[in-house]
Amino acid sequence: MVSMTGRLASAVAVLAIAVSACGGSAGSASPSAAAPSQAATAAAAATTAPSAASPAAAPVTITWWHITTGEPGKSDFQAIADAYTAAHPNVKIEITVLENEAFKTKLSTVDASSVPDLFQSWGGGTMAAQADAGLLQDITSAVASWKDTINPGALSIYQYKGVQYGIPWDMGMIGFWYNKDLFAKAGITAPPTTWDDYLADITKLKAANIVPLAIAGKDKWPSMHLWTYLVLRNGGGQALSQMIQSGNWNTDACTKAGAAVQALNALNPYQPGYKSATYNDEAAAVGNGKVAMELMGQWAPSVEKDQSANKTGLGDKLGWFAFPAVTGGAGAPTDGVGGGNGIAVGKNAPPEAIDFLKFFNNVENQTKLNKDNVGLSTTVGTESAIADANLQAVLAGRSQAKFMQLYLDQATSPAMGSAINDATVALFLGGSTPGTVCQAITTAAAGQ
Amino acid sequence: MMAAGQADRTRSRRLRARALILAFLVPALALYAVFVLFPIVQAARFSLYKWNGLGALTDFIGFRNYVTAFNSPVFVTSVSNNLLVIVLSLSIQIPFSLSLAVLLNRRFRGRSVFRLLFFLPYVLSEAVTGIVFSLMLRPGSLVDSGLGAVGLGSLVQDWLGDGTMVMISLFVIISWKYFGFHMILLLAGLQGIPREIEEAALIDGADRRRVFRYITLPLLGPTLRVSVFLSIIGALQLFDLVWVMTAGGPLNASSTMATGMFKAGFVAHQMGYGSALAVVLFSFGLVVALLYQRFVLRRDTDGALTVYGG
């Protein structure tokens, strides 16, 4: 989980740097210029929506901890808060910007009386633990009127036992990032849409002397996502949720996923040294054009670029396709595995905090964040602000997903996440069997 | 009257001495208690609970964490890896360091340059060493292309990815990092041996080999025993290098007791289980240290320590 968020943070940072490097020319992008128009909209919204705080309301202070330390995201967040307080003079928003690891450390010291009103969350297992510890507020009914403006798959990641505890603002989906040139060289004209086609394409790449797929045996989680997708495609979203909740992984979908990994292994598709490779090694292999593809989240292009020898990555040669369908599997080919950033609501947050959350997630503010590459917004109607064609493809995949599974190592407790990573990487490294993997995860779940 | 006064004075002198000892000891003892003893006691307490590090200790499970550890194949691999490093260190690393020390104890031009060069790896941090060697051992990197360039391309291995090769690779790197330290230690020991004794033996007709066997080696004993002790303790605590290079992988093949402990505590957030592993590791170290002190180092410390009032 540490690596997951660290990776997201670094991806965001890289994007931020890229944006600030080419920024300056677009005057309207500067927070000071954007703020007044937002304030005006907010004021308009306040007058049309009587449910918002009444003008003579008592002073309220909202505390907000976020980890968007990079620019322009940090200024964007401040501008949104400023716009809100300008429209609601009785509200004061105290922002604490923390670096990712510092945030986690600081948050681990709070209790129900000191928990901030709004704070960074990734949803899933960690959020569930916070809910169990009584740190979070049930906002289910408070957001009922506007929750439809948010992507439902992303929204569900911030629910626990049917209760909404937070709202997402950024969400990506894992898919295959591939080198178009290498695919063309192997005679592959279109990305595969079924698992059988995928295996056939791997064979074609091998025949053309191209290493098909990069994974990271040392870091474990990249291949874990591949296995998760196979479970999802074979069993479907409901079955996967059932496995996570019941802790019983001795299922047909789990063993079939394992068998599919073994079929993949048999083609010997991985890069040299994959057993001890880190995620950065993986990204470098793809970014340097040595390996045809990797299965990764929306941060892949920026990390590939960063890790490549010439620091430019693949550029236009990079393409994206969704995880292929498994013929005969119960899962829809549109179901996804993903994750992102959101804001959780603390136990004692005032109603104004939730109103601010609504404002934060409105189309205008989120369009700005999308334009600035701060995230892939989960607000419906902001999609067109994403310029990059590959990120558009990720967004299309995300919006088609009826079911979105949060990264398994975040959806579960750290102990379970670690056990799942260990068990699945053994399969890819040839040290395990499908049944052993399912049993190992089941045993770990029983020990919870 | 007189005797009583003298007794009083003796007693007050003794009291003052005690107060003085106490005054000097208290700061050190306080630090030791807060940063060493207290954490050990805490770890022992945590190890009896199932605890994820959040909230109160409520789930008391007795010694179940220990049972889990000793039944875990990963833990067994870890212990045997630690033992492997001890055996290899004592049988290869220390003899190698000793021969270098003997060599560098001779007078020749550039001697101090070599001493410095051999000692340099020890100055690097383990993390830096790990990263540098990881880069060198990557498939197709320096080591592989170097072997290929001298016609030994067939020897190329998946140095860190192969389950049996990984411990050998790690041991070579550990040896590279620490041989200079043991060499300097032994060199200092060699220089403490009076020349006259060796010269006398030579005059008496002993050859160089015999001088080394019957004069140098026994007189080097105390240094050698310390060197062995440090090597064993270092091997038991082996962590940084392994964590940076392999994180215990592939498939736990290079897991050590310390990496297992870290992983349980800070990756899986199983603080209880991690604490149990910490207690086991601590006990191993303590037992080894005590036995070594009692049976091996005793003759070195006998009579060398001053006892107050003795």
Show the helix and strand layout.
The complex is a heterodimer of chains A (448) and B (310).
Chain A: H1 2-22, H2 31-48, E1 60-66, H3 73-87, E2 91-97, H4 100-107, E3 118-121, H5 124-132, H6 152-156, E4 159-160, E5 163-164, E6 166-168, E7 172-173, E8 175-179, H7 180-185, H8 195-207, E9 211-213, H9 221-235, H10 237-246, H11 252-266, H12 279-287, E10 291-296, H13 300-307, E11 318-321, E12 336-339, E13 342-345, H14 351-360, H15 363-371, H16 389-400, E14 404-406, H17 408-411, H18 414-428, H19 434-446
Parallel strand pairs in A: 1-2, 1-3, 9-10, 12-14
Antiparallel strand pairs in A: 3-13, 4-5, 6-13, 7-12, 8-10, 8-11
Helix pairs in contact in A: 1-13, 2-3, 9-10, 9-11, 9-18, 11-19, 12-13, 18-19
Chain B: H1 2-46, H2 64-71, H3 73-105, H4 111-123, H5 126-137, H6 142-149, H7 165-191, H8 195-203, H9 208-236, H10 240-245, H11 257-267, H12 271-295, H13 298-301
Helix pairs in contact in B: 1-12, 2-12, 3-7, 3-9, 3-11, 4-7, 7-9, 8-9, 9-12, 11-12
How many helical elements of chain A? 19
- Strand percentage of chain A: 5-15%
Shape of chain B: flat
Instruction: Indicate the structural class of chain B.
Output: mainly alpha
Main interface: chain pair and counts = A-B, 23 and 25 residues
Task: Please outline the major beta sheet of chain B.
Answer: none
Shape designation of chain A: globular
CATH homologous superfamily caption of the largest domain in chain B = MetI-like
What's the CATH C level of the largest domain in chain A?
Alpha Beta
- Strand tally of chain A, please? 14
**How many separate domains of chain A?**
2
In which range does the helix fraction of chain B lie? Answer: over 70%
Largest sheet of chain A: 5 strands, mixed
Mean pLDDT of chain A: 85
N-to-C SSE series of chain B?
HHHHHHHHHHHHH
* Total helical segments of chain B: 13
